């Protein structure tokens, strides 16, 4: 069953996203930027959780690492290097740092599976958190690393200074769309199908001659890198890297995003990020007991929509006549 | 027992009294066109505080302190109705980042007040600075924001972390003992306490023999620290803890018999009114320095305590005083600008604001952008059957040096 | 030497509280293969309910006995209406979301009912004193916790080793399919296990609250430590929970005493090392199908 995602919904949504700055207040753009940063983060976790069946409970390590690397390189805080805020330089360093860390963590963590994998990834993340909060001389300790200047993209004589909310929104949108596109290609590639094979039955994949450990390491690194990019995006927006970015609550939250959105899909984590980040932000302005409401929503999802938001969408797509009709039309 | 809901209701009642429709106004789309710098219409003030989690106690007290003051004014300053828009920042910098944008960019508040944790203040500092938004910080005491990270847009109505340990260092060296061991949570505010106490204690002839940095954010069971503190053989302990850590620390100090061995001194928050009832007898005899005490004897405090109890249904604490004083600063500031909220005018008006607060004489110091106020040496003793911080000595006015020269 | 022995006792106190928590969590995992993320919330709610009970009746012991029963009943309801029918490896993610949702609701309602102030259950009067030990006064209540923890460990070991239900539970850990094949009502076993597991959490909540105090957020702090203990010991193993609790309790205590700056780091470093050497924990059964 093929859904009209690519052909109708995506272009419409993209157009809406491009037009959003025309009508929306800067605050709305700020929320959108945060959601996109977390959506990238959640999609990256889903590569592990949904596609490969590796439940990482320490993914915040890479998110925070991305944030701190960007902050350490660019911030004008006395503790930071303050070398550059050129994205073309920040980006490769963030990629490198998160990739190397993911290789290291993955090498050890991937020897375990299931709940034990869950916990060993948590252990690494918590160790990193304790370093961030403890090693004040480098990380700024509990205050984090503030003082990140507006980023820019400089290539030879060309320079784009990203110092307005709108400009940063478009940058984040570009990152987000590019990530979605790349990951979509990834999960639909032979590599992606091998990952699904590992999720379903690793022993069989090994018997078929796949070096599954290498695949798992590879996907762990890719997921780590994209999580790092999400973290970088958030830090450059808030102009601040905070130890909260590394804390296990963020690891838990991104896991919830994936599950509630629909694990094993890419749109799911995006919708999950939208719900899990926006609901508290908005509900807490109006409700005192919003956390109870949030908990009840989670429970209701399990009871009535076990496949998450994406599952609801699929369900309705398969029932609503208009969509069926549109699908038929497009398939001819 | 139902504190959370009761205060939340009073928050709503307040909004009604103010004749405002904060909720409707903050709905996206139904937005007033008034610019932040206008000098007429409702005056919107953004209040960014934790209202959930362990710091909700502080958030509620500060809010109620402000509400109490504004209610007495008829919720009007310089002919403009006051409208408080409260937002729950938790103690999470990322949540606070969006909440401050919501307040400034969507609600178009004239300025922002609140902020309990230094981590949140550190994160928001550049936002206030770059966007030229005034922040009247009513709790977070990080020294840096009166010093290296100072900006004209952040003024404090509360204190700096330097103050209490500075006063205690001198006082303890003269009155308690010559050698001290310091115990603080391992984070920025704890470190502020270490440097400040060490500086003044040493200057007064004392010696700091050991520093114990305990896990932050979660200290857990403090029992292991007790044996180590006892083993140092110091004349006194200086400790900086608040909230649940203050309760467990002081209880363990008492339960392990350290109370008979080594006197406990600290920054006043370790035995403030929010934790004292729970510590009970364990806190008796703990000496601390702070800019206020429940039993402080001045007419403003007497009035404040009575009014606050009538308003909130419970005893006032230091955080309520901070909220009350913040409201008073706002009142003075807006009177001086005649209701104009252009940021340059507001900042100019802050310089030199002074009044008689429940904490005693209060003056905003333009150099450190923080208050000058008295420090009091206090001792936990029963007063009419209730444990209170009895004033031992008025240590006189204190003002942050505005640089790191004194620790 | 005195100092060492003193810290050893402190470590045992933490260990015993962790053990009571971990035993419940491990029991639940062993039978149902569910990581109960609401376990910490049941600790907090148990502590708060105990507090109310002690204030109502003015006595500690009835509260210590009745609160776990009450919380156990809540657990039974949660199992009946939420978890039932959602077991199995392929539903692990739903279980995570479900128990996390329950944890959010419980902790938020607890904050609403009992407020954000730090509170403690007063220990029974005859234990609220201290004995001179190793050069310091050692609170009697803390010694009582060690004793109660050891007694409970013994009782649980006897229960699992010597009773029919215990045998069923042990079989459920290693051979879940055989158990259902033997005509045993697995659903009732599950309900009883979940109720018993969270009742243990509530017990730990009341016993531990004079030491940890009760405040919003404590639930998740305790939960993380408990999961660490259970994972180190090996999921589903009571012996593992006991050894894991000792390891973490002592690491935490000596870490705080000697290397306070690194104590947070140490706990997770210990877990990482254990899992690298023994990927299924110290006494765990290999997780598989």
Written description of the protein model:
The complex is a heterotrimer of chains A (332), B (407) and C (289). With 332 residues, chain A is mostly helical. Chain A is 74% helix and 4% strand. Chain A has one domain. Chain A contains 15 helices and four strands. In chain A, the strands form two sheets. In chain A, strands 1-4 form a two-stranded antiparallel ribbon. In chain A, strands 2-3 form a two-stranded antiparallel ribbon. Chain A is globular. Chain A starts with a helix and ends with a helix. The model of chain B is unreliable at 1-36 (pLDDT under 50). Chain C has a domain at 24-217. In chain C, helix 2 (39-57) runs antiparallel to helix 3 (60-83) and helix 2 (39-57) crosses helix 9.
Sequence-ordered SSE layout with sheet pairings:
The complex is a heterotrimer of chains A (332), B (407) and C (289).
Chain A: H1 5-23, H2 26-52, H3 60-74, H4 87-109, H5 114-134, H6 136-139, E1 145-146, E2 152-155, E3 158-161, H7 165-187, H8 190-200, H9 202-207, H10 212-238, E4 240-241, H11 248-261, H12 267-286, H13 290-304, H14 308-317, H15 321-331
Antiparallel strand pairs in A: 1-4, 2-3
Helix pairs in contact in A: 2-7, 2-10, 2-11, 2-12, 3-4, 3-10, 4-10, 8-10, 11-12, 12-14
Chain B: H1 3-17, H2 22-26, E1 43-49, H3 56-72, E2 76-77, E3 80-88, H4 93-106, E4 111-114, H5 118-131, E5 135-137, E6 154-156, H6 163-175, E7 179-185, H7 188-203, E8 207-214, H8 223-231, E9 236-239, H9 243-255, E10 264-267, H10 276-279, E11 287-290, H11 299-312, H12 318-337, H13 343-350, E12 354-357, E13 360-365, E14 370-383, E15 386-398
Parallel strand pairs in B: 1-3, 1-4, 4-5, 5-6, 7-8, 7-9, 9-10, 10-11
Antiparallel strand pairs in B: 2-3, 11-14, 12-13, 13-14, 14-15
Helix pairs in contact in B: 1-3, 3-12, 4-5, 6-7, 12-13
Chain C: H1 2-32, H2 39-57, H3 60-83, H4 92-114, E1 130-133, E2 136-139, H5 140-162, H6 164-174, H7 176-181, H8 186-212, H9 218-233, H10 238-258, H11 263-277
Helix pairs in contact in C: 1-5, 1-6, 1-8, 1-9, 1-10, 2-3, 2-4, 2-8, 2-9, 3-8, 5-6, 9-10, 9-11, 10-11
